[in-house]
Amino acid sequence: MQISNAKYYKDKDEIICITCTLNGKNSAIPLDPANADYQAIQEWAKIKGNKIEDAD
Amino acid sequence: MTKAAELAKMGEVLTNSQIGGRRNIAYNGAMQISQRSTSETGLGATTGYHTVDRFVLNMGNTAGRLTMSQESITDLSGFAKAVKLDCTTADTSIASNERLLFVQRFEGQDLQQIKKGTSDAEKVTVSFYVKGNANATYTLELADEDNSRFVAQEFSVTSSWTRVVKTFVADTTGKFDNDNAHSMSLNIWLHAGSDFTGGTFTSNTVHTTANQRVGDNQTSFYDSTDRTFFITGIQMEVGSVATPFENRSFGEELALCQRYFKRMTAGANTRITSTARADNTTRARFTVHHNIKMRSTPTVEEVNLDLQGQDLSAISTVGSSDLNDVIVTRSSGTHSGGDVLEVHQLSNTATLDFNSEL
């Protein structure tokens, strides 16, 4: 899985998902621990140099 | 199936009080559904779902590459589709951690009838049709992902279609979790390094040792660019007898697959929605309801979509397994909050995907 541009997304003052480019596609990963992409991006973020940016 | 086998199966289902209902636990076994694509090339670097629904290629650490395609077939009675794997780059220097597996993953709540981890545990029978470019031996494995327990058997491939039938022992240790998480994998090992082959393989015996997972006679799919592997008619059922393949209609199978993945496509004259409501000049939102409850809240992905004629710069979502509010953003625009906008293709066919695969 190729992940880039990962950033938390806030809507109406609440963080609702992680936006990113996932395998070359504009993607939105929900904050659902049962979602396999959410699990994968949490593991990706543990790797040195990777970070999910804070929401605007 | 012989008459004797049919009678044996009848006796078994009567004994188990499972006269009606579906027998095949596997999804898309006839390889009918391919929402993502019918052919993908250059695969081998990373694990992923590429063509037919519900089948993932688990792969990595190899220079070998392949093309995966959904093929129309006419040489196997009763089946119209198969998956073909075609080696396009060989890898004969196999590092210890190399792997290539053709896999289907299952939720624990769909496996409770196997009664695994209890004194009443059932045998499981897996059957499928295979052929290749030449003789080969691969390994069929059931992997208990909740308890890291494995059981496997080798099977043979020839250049003609052959039905493989393998019955696995009942495992009275380690229950499957009764939830929507990944509890079991049906693995077909096609290439493996010594991390998986180094130990002594014991057929149809449950174990917990990584380097005993793959058979001693295993062929490497990547041994030659001549190598091909065709498969269809995958069935996994409770008990010790392989019954005839359970055919399901295209619509039934598609609905089953859409619990895990749904693709909406916008073409020249079709829109994802004509009623996205603008929050402001650059952002709008619309709701997509899932007729089939998805396994989890899905990831949302877009390709080539636009908002009222302008390319999307981002997509976000909030939702559940029942519906998603999809929020689409473009870099600039002239509309005001409350305007109703269209979401459709920019210049080429566009897709909006909902993915809750295991």
Folded structure, characterized:
The complex is a heterodimer of chains A (56) and B (358). Chain A is 18% helix and 43% strand. Chain A is built from one helix and three strands. Chain A has a three-stranded antiparallel β-sheet with strand order 1-2-3, with helices on one face. In chain A, a hairpin with a 2-residue loop joins strand 2 (14-22) and strand 3 (25-30). The mean pLDDT of chain A is 96. With 358 residues, chain B is mainly beta. In chain B, the strands form four sheets. In chain B, strands 1-4-5-12-7-10 form a six-stranded antiparallel β-sheet, with no helix packed on it. The longest helix of chain B has 13 residues, at 3-15. Classes of the chains: A alpha+beta (56), B mainly beta (358). Strand 3 of chain A pairs antiparallel with strand 16 (299-303) of chain B.
Mean pLDDT of chain B: 95
Tell me the radius of gyration of chain B: 23 Å
Radius of gyration of chain A: 11 Å
Number of helices of chain B: 3
Order of helices and strands of chain A: EEEH
Described by its quaternary structure, the protein is heterodimer
Query: Which strand order does the major sheet of chain B show?
Result: 1-4-5-12-7-10
- Main structural class of chain B: mainly beta
State the secondary-structure class of chain A: alpha+beta
* Count of separate DSSP helical elements of chain A: 1
What does the main sheet of chain A amount to?
3 strands, antiparallel
Low-confidence stretches of chain B: none
Strand count, sense and closure of the main sheet of chain B? 6 strands, antiparallel
Tell me the total number of β-strands of chain B: 21
What is the overall shape of chain A?
Answer: globular
Got a strand count of chain A?
3
Order of helices and strands of chain B: HEEEEEEEEEEEHEHEEEEEEEEE
